[in-house]
Design goal:
mainly alpha; Growth Hormone, Chain: A; 3-stranded antiparallel beta sheet; about 70% helix; disordered N terminus
């Protein structure tokens, strides 16, 4: 075996493969891989990743598009007459928007811990999708404020399972350096949803209004909910379980899928998870300062992103009719999708995280200032077109970064992903009240709050960068420590084996 140093029956050194694990570079190689050269292993790994992308990522993207569509179609329904037909007065519409996130927040952490415990995402996630599709359809049957409140709360309660659950599932299949662009591709689903929701809503509201005696906004919920249910039934046959338990990989592929993640972090996700309770994982997550710093980083972006819930209303302030307004929402989302994907690709290519998180909010701040500055159509529309890219480019890199800096144990990662996503969405409860119709078209209060919170994101991202840099220096001092001794303790929330193998935080 060329370029391979045999150090014993169970350990083989791969000098060329030390981009992830510094230090000793010694990892335990499964028996089925020990007769292969590093180049052959890399080829097999690349083939496996492509297979995972096709099977997992595409379905996750489709599911998230529909998740976001069912959550936010109320904005288009408002323009199509929902507010008038249900006789919503005062801030009742804002209450209906925000109540979804009460259910959303309540269920996120328990849902991810349940998913981690069950280990059956192939059943759990599509099952939740069927439920929210049914509830979305039921929105069409509401006739008053109380009915809309109930279905919106239930929708948030059930939808809460998907996004943190999906992030957890991705982190169980991809290495730290692969997660960035995969998370971006996933989140592009929400932007694609935003881009085409306006086109879909324009088609439905202009072509089906009054069809069979049903209002256009009711058709919107019926059609999009039914589409969700159909996709969920397909997802039952496509969404995989975890690397060691899935049925669509060969035995050798299962071994490779699990080993490459162990090589990335220095700990076996599956074995480690067997010894961790849900309560233990939650405790580890909330007592790690990195969890709270990541929450601060993501909170500002999530708050600013609340503008998307009211994007049709904000765009209506440009003075166009309802159909034109819905059509005008498409270009900003398409631009944001392109920006997010390129930005995440560059972050993964360079391995750099801080600047990719801290710089996009600067662009978003400029966009919000331009949007507040005046009523000129061209200037405000340009601001809208760059606003979403500025908000979400750094946000998406941050989402993948959670699993980068809180990688193991699996229960801790699951809890941290749900905990951060949960608390960062608290803003969704109060932000709708900053977008009353009376604030149109400049929404000075809402945009000012967004600017302040984006500035907070930049500051906390800087603090996190400094903190992780110091941790890496401390880990440098532990490099090469005896494996047996290291495994007796944890350093900086990392398994002892990861410390001994030379783990470093991406900066």
């Amino acid at each position: 075996m060329d370029n391979v140093k045999n150090t014993g029956a169970e350990h083989i050194e791969f000098p060329e493969m030390g981009d992830t694990l510094k230090g000793s570079g010694t990892v335990t190689v499964p028996t089925s891989l020990q007769d292969l050269t590093p180049e052959e292993i890399q080829r097999r790994e690349a083939k496996l990743v492509r297979k995972i992308d096709i099977r997992l990522l595409i379905m996750m993207l489709i599911m998230y598009i529909l998740n976001y569509l069912d959550r936010n179609n109320i904005a288009a329904a408002k323009l199509a007459g929902l507010q008038a037909d249900l006789n919503l007065r005062g801030d009742q519409y804002q209450v209906c928007v925000s109540i979804l996130f009460v259910g959303y927040l309540l269920m996120q952490v328990p849902s991810n811990l349940i998913l981690n415990k069950l280990g059956k995402p192939s059943i759990y996630l599509p099952g939740c999708m069927v439920a929210w599709g049914v509830i979305s359809c039921c929105t069409a049957a509401t006739h008053n404020f109380a009915g809309l409140i109930v279905v919106r709360f239930l929708l948030g309660f059930v939808e809460a399972a998907y996004f943190p659950g999906c992030l957890y599932l991705l982190s169980a299949w991809y290495t730290r350096k692969e997660l960035g662009k995969r998370t971006a591709l996933l989140y592009a689903g929400s932007l694609i949803s935003g881009a085409f929701s306006g086109l879909i809503a324009a088609g439905i509201t202009s072509g089906l209004n009054g069809a069979r005696g049903i209002a256009a906004w009711r058709w919107l919920f019926i059609i999009e909910g039914a589409l969700t249910i159909f996709a969920a039934l397909i997802a039952f046959f496509i969404v995989p379980d975890l690397p060691r338990t899935t049925s669509w990989l060969t035995d050798d592929e299962k071994v490779l899928a699990a080993w490459r993640l162990e090589k990335d972090i220095g700990e076996d996700d599956w074995v480690d998870n067997e010894h961790q309770s849900m309560t233990k994982g939650a405790k580890l997550a909330v007592t790690d300062i990195k969890t709270w710093l990541m929450l601060g980083v993501i909170y500002g972006c999530t708050s600013a992103g609340c503008v998307t819930t009211f994007f049709p209303s904000v765009m209506a302030g440009l003075g166009r009719n309802n159909i034109d307004t819905l059509l005008l929402t498409t270009p900003p989302y398409l631009i944001a999708t392109l920006v997010v994907l390129v930005h995440a690709w560059h972050a993964d290519r360079t391995g750099e995280r801080y600047l990719h998180i801290a710089l996009p909010p600067v662009v978003a701040i400029v966009a919000f200032i331009l949007a507040m500055a005046g009523n000129n159509f061209a200037a405000r529309y340009v601001a809208m077109c760059i606003m979403l890219g500025g908000i979400y480019a750094g946000y998406v890199v941050s989402l993948g970064y959670i699993s980068n800096i809180l990688p193991r144990p699996a229960t801790k990662r699951a809890a941290a992903l749900a905990f951060i996503n949960c608390l960062s969405n608290v803003c969704q409860i109060y932000m709708p009240y900053l977008y009353p119709d009376s604030a149109s078209p400049r929404y000075i209060a809402a945009f000012s709050v967004n600017i302040a919170l984006l500035a907070m994101t930049i500051v906390i991202a800087t603090i996190l960068r400094i903190y992780l840099g110091r941790l890496n220096k401390q880990l440098d001092e532990l490099e090469g420590v005896d494996l047996a001794r290291a495994c007796e303790n944890e350093e900086h929330g990392l398994p002892g084996r990861a410390v001994a193998e030379g783990f470093r935080f991406l900066l």
